Amino acid sequence: MGIDNSKTANDLLNWEDLRKMRYSWNVASEVLRLAPPLHGTFREAIEDITYDGYVIPKGWKLHWIADDTHRNQQYFQNPDKFDPMRWEKVIPDEKLVSAPTPRPAQGLPVRLYPQKT
């Protein structure tokens, strides 16, 4: 509501607003963890590595599958549970950066309305 009160009817959200919306950012992060927009991506081994008993030579292409990592209990406790709070206090002063992914040219055009009680 504080962000809503600081905006006029035509104001758009900006990165500073998003930085203040910690819980909303946590919800978005959890949604992306459970339903990643990309199936995976390719990487190149920068040196010879051994993984699960197999040698992967330098220069080979690897395909990483996001869902396999995001639902792995080794990395996420209760991986199938929707829990936005899992993102709280991981890196308290983490800065938000834009990634080279598609985004609206005009920023994040959203209108906020007070909740009716």
SSE diagram, text form:
Layout: H1 2-6, H2 15-20, H3 22-34, E1 40-44, E2 49-51, E3 54-56, E4 61-65, H4 66-70
Antiparallel strand pairs: 1-4, 2-3
Count of helix runs: 4
Radius of gyration: 19 Å
Helix content: 10-25%
* Total separate domains: 1
| Protein structure class | alpha+beta
Q: Mean of residue pLDDT?
A: 82
What is the general shape? elongated
State the oligomer: single chain
**Distance from first to last alpha carbon:** 14 Å
Question: For the report, how would you describe the main beta sheet?
Answer: 2 strands, antiparallel
Strand content: 5-15%
GO molecular function, one term: heme binding
Family: Belongs to the cytochrome P450 family.
Keywords: Heme, Iron, Metal-binding, Monooxygenase, Oxidoreductase
Pfam families: p450 (PF00067)
Commentary on this structure:
It is a single chain. The chain is an alpha+beta fold. It has one domain. Helix content is 25%, strand content 14%. The protein has four helices and four strands. A two-stranded antiparallel sheet has the order 1-4. A two-stranded antiparallel sheet has the order 2-3. The longest helix is centred in the N-terminal third of the chain and has 13 residues. It is elongated and about 60 Å long. Belongs to the cytochrome P450 family. InterPro entries: Cyt_P450, Cyt_P450_B, Cyt_P450_sf. Keywords: Heme, Iron, Metal-binding, Monooxygenase, Oxidoreductase. One of its GO terms (molecular function) is monooxygenase activity.
